[in-house]
Amino acid sequence: MSDCRPNSLTIFYDAQCPLCSLEMDKLKSYDDHQLIKLIDLNRPEQVSGYPQINIDKAMDKLHGIYGKTTMLYELDVTYMAWTLVGKKHYVWPLKVPILKQVLRMFYLVFANNRHPISKFCFKYLKIGKIQCNQGVCHDRDSDNINRCE
After folding, report:
1. Which of 6, 64, 95, 123 gives a 20 to 30 Å CA spacing to 148?
2. Residue 2: inside a domain, yes or no?
3. Does any domain span residue 81?
4. In whole angstroms, what is the distance from residue 46 CA to residue 6 CA?
């Protein structure tokens, strides 16, 4: 099911994570040549065409398929994605050996705590993308009901 173009990238991500969704939206806004395909891990019907993807493992760490068969994980997915859309300068530190190791540690902390981190960033810093199910969101902290288009 992955795109057959040799320089395409299919990314499997948690679309219920506000920061993850924000990054994927930004990435797609630069994808003029339609090289990036996004698969929401929360939608099993989207993932079912990719038997090599274990949803639980992909929820733990970012997974991608480059070209037809090359599996990428974690920050290698991020690096490849931003490189494909012409924004390699955004992610150049991911290829510097010592920086890559430090950034990987930060990534793993984020990946394991992405929902509380995203909630904090959205609530207090207004960074992230509001997540709605079937057009309605309920913010339990403020008891507000929000409608999304």
Report:
1. 64
2. no
3. yes
4. 21
Task: Answer whether residue 1 is part of any domain.
Answer: no
Helix, strand or coil, per DSSP, at residue 109: helix
Q: pLDDT averaged over the chain?
A: 86
Q: Which two tokens stand for residue 17?
A: 């994570």
From CA 18, how far away is CA 83, in angstroms rounded? 23
Token pair listed for 31: 């994808």
> Could you tell me the residue range of the domain that residue 112 belongs to?
9-147
User: Which DSSP letter does residue 134 get?
Assistant: T
Rounded (to 5) percent helix, strand, coil in the chain: 45, 20, 35
Q: What is the pLDDT of residues 101-141, one digit of tens each?
A: 999 999 999 999 999 998 898 888 888 776 655 444 544 44
Q: How many distinct structural domains can be found in the chain?
A: 1
Alpha carbons 79 and 94: distance in angstroms, whole number: 7
Distance CA 41, CA 50 (A): 11
Residue 4: inside a domain: no
The answer on pLDDT for 99 being more than 90 is yes
| Residue 116 identity | P
